[in-house]
Design a protein that fits this description.
transmembrane helix, membrane, about 30% helix, 10 helices, Cell cycle control protein, transmembrane, five-stranded antiparallel β-sheet, glycoprotein, about 350 residues
Length: about 350
């Protein structure tokens, strides 16, 4: 009996304030004044932030030009897959009425392209993209191997369907002399993508590193020859490739293509005047009833031309204020009724 009593006592929790649940506690007692003040302050904050975000988004200068129908001959040519080796170009002149001050960014925009399909997203090899195993193509169906069994690099449906139009912006200086607007193709990716998720094989010669693999069927050249001007922008570290590999959540999306190099005539941005887009049309969209466009845009501290966040804050603030006035009316009504019964 004595041993049993000792064993039962040994299983008792320690005699501490924490284990005996004797810590000091605070019970929050909300008053009507406190609750109403909280709702009022939250409404003011949300409305203020929403208005600031909307004004910031409205200050962005943006121009979008859809070119699927303008380049109709090229679009029709690309409907036939046998014409993949035939080059087709078109020029789209336009007038920029206002100067686009500061940094200017060029995007390509796709309509009706579903990058968010489950099987499409899974069709990639992360170990291959990190340069650890170029022949790991087990998750890349149906673009894992060529007809002769050679592993594809980069493999998968996302890589095979890369956006491959070439877009060059020209500025008509003095309305007669066209000059190419200097654009940078680097610095357009997320830092984590460039330095964490994508890596080339550890070799100074990429053509040797990718030996034993073949290019995707829809590509015109292998991954180690994507950029002939900058050797560092080749392989899995090519900026255009990395941008495309980040799948979009909606069927209508735009992705960063180039950014303005602010030199010569463009130190202050894009001056007003006559411009033209010279496009080498490669990416087919008419087969799935899609469309393509090119977008020139400036940015502010809050990002691009998107009103969603500002409207979300504004609506939240308006609903909070509506709740504040409703609760205040009910509180005053009940307070008057209580005073009436007290006087009785």
């Amino acid at each position: 009996m004595k041993r049993t009593s000792e064993e039962s006592q040994s299983r008792l929790p320690d005699n501490s304030a924490l284990k005996q649940q004797q810590l000091p506690a605070y019970r929050l007692q909300l008053t009507a004044t406190g609750v109403l003040s909280g709702f009022f302050a939250t409404g003011v904050f949300c409305l203020g932030v929403g208005i600031i975000l909307i004004l910031s988004a409205k200050s962005i200068k943006e121009i979008e030009i859809k070119y699927t129908k303008i380049c109709g001959n090229c679009a029709k040519l690309r409907e036939d897959a046998t014409n993949f080796d035939k080059e087709c170009t078109c020029s789209i002149p336009f007038y920029l009425s206002e100067t686009m001050q500061g940094n200017v960014y060029m995007y390509y925009k796709l309509y009706g392209f579903y990058q968010n399909l489950y099987r499409y997203i899974l069709s990639r090899s992360n170990s291959q993209l990190m340069g650890t195993d170029l022949k790991d193509v087990g998750t890349c169906a149906p673009f894992s191997r060529s007809h002769d069994g050679t592993p594809i690099a980069p493999c998968g449906a996302i890589a095979n369907s890369i956006f491959n139009d070439t877009i060059i912006l020209s500025y008509n200086l003095n309305s007669s002399i066209p000059i190419e607007v200097p654009m940078l193709r680097s610095g357009i990716t997320w830092w984590t993508d460039k330095y964490v998720k994508f890596q080339n094989p550890r070799s100074k010669n990429l053509s040797i590193a990718f030996a034993g693999t073949t290019k995707p069927p829809s590509w015109a050249k292998p991954v180690y020859e994507l950029d002939q001007e900058d050797p560092e922008n080749n392989g899995f570290l090519n900026d255009d490739f990395i941008v495309w590999m980040r799948a979009a959540a909606f069927p209508t999306f735009k992705k960063l293509y180039r950014r303005l190099n602010r030199i010569q005539y463009f130190t202050e941005g894009l001056p007003a005047g006559n411009y033209s887009f010279n496009i080498t049309y490669n990416f087919p969209v008419t087969r799935f009833r899609g469309e393509k466009s090119v977008v020139l845009s400036t940015l502010t501290w809050s990002g691009g031309s998107n009103l969603f966040l500002g409207l979300a804050y504004t609506v939240t603030g308006a609903v909070t204020w509506l709740a504040f006035f409703s609760m205040m009316a009910i509180h005053l009504m009940l307070k008057d009724r209580k005073m009436f019964f007290t006087q009785q």
